[in-house]
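If I may wish for something, please walk me through the protein I am sending here so I can picture the backbone:
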Amino acid sequence: MLRVIFDTNIYGELVEEPNLTIYEEKLKSKYIIYNFFPIRKELRKISVSSIRGRKTRIAVLELLDRLSKNHEIEHSEKIEKISKKYYQVYVNKGGITPWRFIKIGFEIIACASIHNLDVVFSNDRKTMFSLKAIKSYEEINNNFQLKTPKLLIYEDLMNQIKTHFS
């Protein structure tokens, strides 16, 4: 089983899937999905708009809990330190996104790298998965002898689920 972490936007995509119940079972059989407190904190900020009669915030938080059951990674000083180093290199490479907008994404990558997770799924191509950001992860991870996780988007996740279970 692959050890993975989902960015907040992946939970937003999943909760809108009409076949969510089927996909959940498939996800749980293929992946060990980790919860990370900054992701939960970000999901708590979701507006209270409604999806299929349920509050979006509640729906994504419940989904997070079901998928990551008993697999939680604590935030740490090391994660904070590595994510800030990513940002320093990112800025040196010409990255312009302010820290407050990229912080959680960089913390997710640091978390996954430190805990040797296989994949990070996100749809954040403009910042978190930008070429400058990826080069920053690779440079800092090489310095700290960490393995950079594979970076995949939601479409890749759906393709893997459909291919694996067709």
